[in-house]
Every structure is written in structure tokens, then in C-alpha cells.
Amino acid sequence: MSRKQRGNKPAPPPGLVIVDKPDGMTSHDVVARMRRIMGTRKIGHAGTLDPMATGVLVIGVERATKLLGHLALDRKSYLATIGLGASTTTDDAEGEALTQADPDALAAITEADIDKAIADLTGDIQQVPSAVSAVKVNGERAYAKVRAGERVELDARPVTVHRFDRLALRTEPRLEIDALVDCSSGTYVRALARDLGAALGVGGHLTALRRTEVGPFGLARARTLERLEEDPSLSLTLDEAVTTAFDVHMVDAATARAVRYGQRTPAAGLPGTYGIADAEGRALAIATDQGGHAKYLVVLAPA
């Protein structure tokens, strides 16, 4: 597709849109809706959310889609509601019940019991992902195998739960806790719900999940799809996205020209992935240092 979209409408400027994803939509559904809203097919997303989850979903528009695979989204925060007393096939409210606890066993659980089990699931832990996760098994997603009727057993993997704080406890109409979870990428909050219920001997599953932050992007910048329909604008321009998500190496005019042409330039001396920008703050590339020079991962402003 050319730079002109359908009906000779100009392509939107590149950048990021932080969407407040609604319940019941897949991340792919949101991408499809955003293509209509923004008037371009060059839309992608980072940090997938399950259909039942709401909250922060990072959407790339036009050239900013090239940023998505390089964003440091390795720390995520959630508000979760965990139901105790039943386990399910999916570890959340959308699955079929596997076990149902005896009411007397539920009544015997104390706040101290819950807090100890939560503490045991905090820090560096080994977690078995949910069987309906996106983890690949022999090249196929685990959830696809489960839907096909196969039994899936996944290996435990190391994850970090930086915070797992109980915010509220309700006993009516069922035993539920609200919690704040701050965790590393690859952590499954519904697996935390499953394991919390198992530790208490009554079963548990996730009943609601809202992502409040992913990497440097939070709900403060997020907008609903309805708001975006009314005002289809970016949350961050391409330049703002780079300065928000990366350390930035500012270069002079001669070096900026070399970057635009993909020519070798000196190393920035910055750890990890960083942005390169000219003196006016225009984003030129994403790079890492390799020896004494910069290795371009993406050139955002080619000559």
C-alpha cells in the first residue's frame, strides 16, 4: 500500500497509541479496530493481553511498528481479583470447574493463611505457565493444543514477582481477594491465582485482571477505543516514544547524516538498546554498541 491510504487519505504520522483494552476483545481484535480508526494497515501491538483482561495495550502506528520488538516491556503491573474455592481448566473464570472446595475448608482459611501463601509466591519463583498460555510446545501454542483436546504439561520456568500485595478480602458472595501484582515479563497472573488456591488447599482462579503498567507506559496515557474513535490521535509521536522508552544518544549533523544512510558511527557508550537522535530531538535509529561502533537495530529516518 502506498503512502496514500484509501480515498487518497494521507497516512497518519508514526507513533504509539496506548489503548485501554476492554474486556472480551483479543489483542488482535484491538489491532483490527485500530486499523479502521487510524486509517492504515500498518498497525501492530506489543505485550499481548488475554480477552478477559483490560488495561494497557501498546499499539504501534506506521514506522513505530518497528519499535515494538525492541521496547523494554519486561516489568508489568496488574490489579487482579482472585476467587478462592474453585480451580478451573484455564485458571480463570472462563474455564470449566475442575474442583470445588468444601465450605468448611473455605471458612477455616484465615487472613494470615492467605498472606503467608502470597509471601511464598513473591520474589524469584519457579512458575508453571497456564496450560492455555501462548507458550510453544513443539512449535505450537499450548492453548491451541488444549483447544484441540490434547493434554498439555509445561515445565516450570523462573519468573520474578516483585510485589504481590493483598488489597482487599471479601467473603460474600464468595471468598475473593483483590491484589496488586508487579512482575517480570513471562509471569502468568492466573497461574499465581491457581498456585495461591492450591497452597491454601481450596483451589483458586483469576476472576478479573487489569494491566495498569507495561514498561514505561501506564493507564495515565491510555484511552478507550471509543475515545479514539472520536479523536484518532497518537499518545506519543515517534520521537516521544523513543525518548520515553530508551536512553537517547544525541548526535551532530554529520553523524546524523551517516545514521540516515546506515553508515558506521562511533559507539555511544550506553548499556543495552538505546535511541539515536539529532540535535533537534528527531529519532533516527535504535541501536546497541558493538565494539567501537553502533549497531543499528532499526533505522527510523532513512535517507
From TrEMBL:
Provide the reaction this enzyme catalyses: uridine(55) in tRNA = pseudouridine(55) in tRNA
* Example of a GO MF term: tRNA pseudouridine(55) synthase activity
- Domain spans labelled Pseudouridine synthase II N-terminal: 35-189
- EC number(s) per UniProt? 5.4.99.25
Q: Which family does it belong to?
A: Belongs to the pseudouridine synthase TruB family. Type 1 subfamily.
Q: Does the keyword Plastid apply?
A: no
Q: Where is the active site?
A: 50
Q: Which UniProt keywords apply?
A: Isomerase, tRNA processing
UniProt-recorded name of the protein: tRNA pseudouridine synthase B
Region feature Disordered, mapped onto this chain: 1-23
Q: Which organism is it from?
A: Haloechinothrix salitolerans
Give a yes or no for keyword Isomerase in this entry.
yes
| Limits of the tRNA pseudouridylate synthase B C-terminal domain | 190-230
Function statement:
Responsible for synthesis of pseudouridine from uracil-55 in the psi GC loop of transfer RNAs.
Give one Pfam family, short name only. TruB_C
Q: Which residues form the tRNA pseudouridine synthase II TruB subfamily 2 C-terminal domain?
A: 246-300
